[in-house]
Amino acid sequence: MTKAIIVRSLGGPEVLRIENVELAPPGPGEVRIKQAAIGLNFIDVYFRTGLYKTELPFIPGKEGAGTVTALGDGVTDLAVGDRVAYASAEGAYAAERNVATRHLVKVPDEISLETAAAMMLKGMTAQYLLLQTFPVKPGMTILFHAAAGGVGLIAGQWAKALGATVIGTAGSKEKVELALAHGYDHVIDYSKEDFVARVSELTGGKKCDVVYDSVGKDTFPRSLDCLKMRGTFVSFGNSSGPVDAFNLGLLAQKGSLYATRPTLFQYIATRPELDACANSLFDVVRSNKVRINVNQTYPLADAGRAHTDLETRKTSGASLLIP
């Protein structure tokens, strides 16, 4: 038996309930891990509410880190005692769990399991956004919404290390100050300022090469007005609700723009892609160019409170659930 959060009906944070669940031995190609920490992400909210579809009942969560305690048949690439982490295996909200080895990467000795759990999904998201979806080069200007969030704090530091001018948005004085301490050259408080007008002012009217947007409904289509001609709009989340359908002609009207909606899981679909993305993240963290901030921790049983804090924008940086 192990403790896990079970979602038996879709709805608000109150549907996240801790239960005792049977845990079978790891199957072929799987290992059992005792989890040290579990990452909290907005994608967990999307599954809990039904915005993203899955079958009921389910254990939410995609990100965690822990120690291998048992091996299934055919596992040769991991051993009992290995420290591992993952970002793409549904069922993370549990004290112990079985995971297919194709999802797992070994955690370097210099990185704690808590740090690994806080950075795998968010850090690899920053990696593919900045280095693959729209490769950021020295001299470029970027706009990153939700600059004080888990992905935003990593992306600000990483983009600055890549040589970009980094503009962010945040929703309070405290979050503005936090983002400024993590690589951002300028942070716009959207609760007080018009971010479109401020971007134009900060760039002398030249605007941005790319906008990275995980907010969605509240920032679209105005994010398009922050782009220079032939700029790129990257939508990778929708914390305020999904972007409404729009006429593609809008991209032409606003400057022959590009728009894309990538997901991490299609960038780490193969073992070589996962290893390359994770190793890139580990390297930038070990170099101290990117610091990982765990600003909130919650007992696993308080997953509902954690979701409430996340949805009401009371959190900053990374949040962890501790079994």
UniProtKB/TrEMBL annotation:
SUPFAM superfamilies from the xrefs?
GroES-like, NAD(P)-binding Rossmann-fold domains
Q: Domain Enoyl reductase (ER), which positions?
A: 11-321
Mind telling me which PROSITE patterns this protein's record contains?
Answer: QOR_ZETA_CRYSTAL
EC category:
oxidoreductase
Q: Which CDD domains does this one have? A: QOR2
InterPro entries xrefs: ADH-like_C, ADH-like_N, ER, GroES-like_sf, NAD(P)-bd_dom_sf, QOR-like, Quin_OxRdtase/zeta-crystal_CS
Note whether Cytoplasm occurs among the keywords: no
Record EC number: 1.6.5.5
Which UniProt keywords are listed?
NADP, Oxidoreductase
Source organism, top-level taxon:
Bacteria
Recorded GO terms, molecular function?
Answer: mRNA 3'-UTR AU-rich region binding; NADPH binding; quinone reductase (NADPH) activity; zinc ion binding
GO CC, any one term: cytosol
Q: What is this protein called?
A: NADPH2:quinone reductase
Supply the source organism for this entry: Mycoplana azooxidifex
